[in-house]
Amino acid sequence: MHAAVVTDFGSPDVFEPTELPDPAPAPGQVAIDVTHAAVGLIDVYLRQGLYQDQTGLPQPPYVPGLEVAGTVRALGDGVAGLRVGEPVVTLSGNGAEGGYASVALADAALTTSLDGTGVDPALAVAAVPNAATAYLALTEVAHLKPGEHVLVHGALGGLASAFPGVARALGAAGVTGTVRRSSLERARASALPYDEVVPADDLAEAVGDRRFDVVVDPVGGRVRTASLGVMAPMGRMLLVGNASGDWQHTVPTNALWGGNLALLGYAVGFHLPHHPELAGPAASAALEAVRKGLVQIDVQTVPLSQAAQAHRLLENGSVAGRIVLTP
Ligand SMILES: NC(=O)c1ccc[n+]([C@@H]2O[C@H](COP(=O)([O-])OP(=O)(O)OC[C@H]3O[C@@H](n4cnc5c(N)ncnc54)[C@H](OP(=O)(O)O)[C@@H]3O)[C@@H](O)[C@H]2O)c1
């Protein structure tokens, strides 16, 4: 198979196109002929070596890529409910790297059929895994209730884009997005189902006296602390990423006590593999939201041989929507 291998921790230059033996599925896994592999900021962090001391995370040389779409090539022992040739997409949290390749392995429990859905595989891999993550974060962690108001930071980002559609499907009364000023124009032209998108730079002024029951924060840094001032009593903030790159930022915890607020972390990769029973409902909700056009994220396809360039684009913040590699 063709693969884009990370040969060392470091800059995007560490990518090397490599021919590797086709992998065979272990029991409970499927092998997938990959047509599209998603690229996310987490791939960038792993390649940079940000988590190099954390056990269980990949060490070079490795093939990155957590989410793929394609067709089932082979079934491991004990796999039922999927057939060879079936179009599929995998959910985040597969636990496995290996997506930046022409053949990838995935846990069957976290592999969802696209048969008969009419969902394009490029959109599927760009939107379904993140929409499933959004569903899990909003239902299992933030316990979003119908009629509540949601605020989503970094509103056009890969993960963030999945939240407004899923929140609406769960009955949210309104969804507001925030972006940096440089993205405001693009946000206002976006097909994502936000009621409004406001500048993140001065959050308090931008939202006035509106208050939010659930805040979704994949950005971190200053906007995280600013969010405490615009949350409704009993509000919950989902900490789901740190796109700001501000790893030193801390939040004043006495503000939680005084404001009746909660901060809740969620990382799908450390949750879903331990709760595969949640994958089916999350995948169904995600696919339904995508099929209804609620997660219309822009998808930019780049050949697998240009994986390094895809990472450069993501690192310098010039991706509108999501990048998908095609082997
Ligand atoms: N918790 C989970 O299970 C999970 C799953 C997937 C991803 N993540 C995490 O979520 C975060 C976002 O990942 P992604 O793949 O969605 O990334 P992405 O597509 O690059 O989106 C990041 C967004 O953050 C915004 N942003 C604000 N300040 C920024 C800054 N200083 N530098 C760069 N971007 C900034 C950007 O929006 P504007 O420029 O428009 O403001 C951008 O659209 C990452 O930390 C990733 O690890 C978590």
From TrEMBL:
Checking InterPro entries in the record gives: ADH-like_N, ER, GroES-like_sf, NAD(P)-bd_dom_sf, Zn-ADH-like_protein
Enoyl reductase (ER) domain ranges (all copies): 10-325
Gene3D superfamilies given in the database record: Medium-chain alcohol dehydrogenases, catalytic domain (3.90.180.10), NAD(P)-binding Rossmann-like Domain (3.40.50.720)
Q: Which SUPFAM superfamilies match?
A: GroES-like, NAD(P)-binding Rossmann-fold domains
One Pfam family of this chain: ADH_zinc_N_2
State the source organism's domain of life: Bacteria
Transmembrane stretches, start-end: none
**Where do the segments described as Disordered lie?**
1-26
Which SMART domains would you find in this protein's record?
A: PKS_ER
Which PANTHER family does the record cross-reference, listed alphabetically?
QUINONE OXIDOREDUCTASE-LIKE PROTEIN 2 (PTHR43677:SF4), SHORT-CHAIN DEHYDROGENASE/REDUCTASE (PTHR43677)
| Protein name per Swiss-Prot or TrEMBL | Zinc-binding dehydrogenase
Tell me what organism the protein belongs to.
Streptomyces synnematoformans
